[in-house]
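Lab notebook: predicted structure, single chain.

Context: the supervisor wants predicted structures on file for every construct in the current expression panel, including those that have not yet been purified. This is the next one on the list. No modifications to the sequence; it matches the entry in the shared construct table.
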Amino acid sequence: MVSFQTGKSVGNKVVMAKIAREDFIALQNHCAVKNETINAVIRKAILNEITEPLPHMLAGKNSFIYNRDKDNFSWSVMLDNGLRIDMEDNLSFAFMAQLQNTAARVIDERNTYVRKEMNDSVTVPSKIVRKGM
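Prediction complete. Output recorded below exactly as produced.
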């Protein structure tokens, strides 16, 4: 007679990943400093990601600042929870100008796709529109 068990799997499973040699050496050094095995560090990282996952997206605002002394720009993100993430501190004028042009083009493309015609309008689910027609 065969019995099936529901719930957690019985036993352990092996998880493998290929990483660059440089990353492996850095992992070995990290483990040596923590006085832990590679398996223990990886196990803790996996369990931490599963039990306390970060959301895929976080709310916040981009901030660009012009640095007159260096004639460049810095970019940071201020999350709604108050945490500030410094993204880059040496963006050139050429980069920012290209970013501005590219952003304007893709925003126009998006607005055309969703048929946005008024500045203060927002997107709504199409199923709402279909129910009202």
